[in-house]
Amino acid sequence: MKMNCIAVDDELLALKKIERFAEKIDYLNLMGTFDNALSTFSFLRENKVDLIFLDIQMDEFTGIQLLETLKDPPYVILTTAFDEYALKAYELDVVDYLLKPIPFERFVKATEKVYVRFLKDQNNQAPMPTRQQPVENNEHPEFTFIKSGNKTVKVYYDKILYIEGQRDYLQIHTEDSRIMTLLNFKKMQELLDDQKFIRVHKSYIISIDKIDYIENNTIKIKDKLIPVSSTYKIAFQNLLQKKNFL
């Protein structure tokens, strides 16, 4: 599922940069770029937009003023060369705040944050099932996108076996592959469903559904033996009991 987005900036080079970045991310559909507020208003009246990359400092009409006039604004990522607007951005509930010049890695991180919210909102807006339809739990998206080297990789949650810490990076072990990412454990846990994934050791997050067996303080998943440390043991046991595994 793609997000429809636009970019608003009175600097042509800034718009071109966002165009290049958006082309590299397959869940973004950049519908257009605009260098003034008036043309942006006209476009928003006629088109459904999920995300705006919005510059703050523009002639005649600032990005903040534009945002304040929108009755039901889409997700917004502010872009600016100045950091004094951070508090105002927080007050307007924007998703992220990018300082120019924007590194690609920071751009990806911001769009991933929006995309997770977007998928959750789409699931929450799904129609209620009829009595003939099976009830599905759609509270968490089926997949996410992970930055790995120069690639942005789609990762399906139900294929993740476990996640292993390797010094300065994480290695995501799936049924099909291994994916290296510079995300830390905290950021990774924010992306995961805490009813299906749990940290059991300072170096491991596991998928509850992929456990083959548990023996003493060791978990077996495929060919991997994963230790359960005392720090995480109680939380792990509580989750197992909650899911009637114990």
TrEMBL record:
Domain Response regulatory: start-end pairs: 4-115
Every HTH LytTR-type domain range: 146-215
PROSITE patterns for this protein: HTH_LYTTR, RESPONSE_REGULATORY
UniProt keyword annotation of Phosphoprotein present: yes
InterPro entries the UniProt entry points to: CheY-like_superfamily (IPR011006), LytR-like (IPR046947), LytTR_DNA-bd_dom (IPR007492), Sig_transdc_resp-reg_receiver (IPR001789)
GO MF annotations in UniProt: DNA binding; phosphorelay response regulator activity
Record keywords: Phosphoprotein
Highest taxon of the lineage: Bacteria
One Pfam family cited in the UniProt record for this chain: Response_reg
4-aspartylphosphate modification, residue list: D55
Claim: Phosphoprotein is one of the keywords in the record: yes
Protein name: Response regulator transcription factor
Organism, as annotated: Draconibacterium halophilum
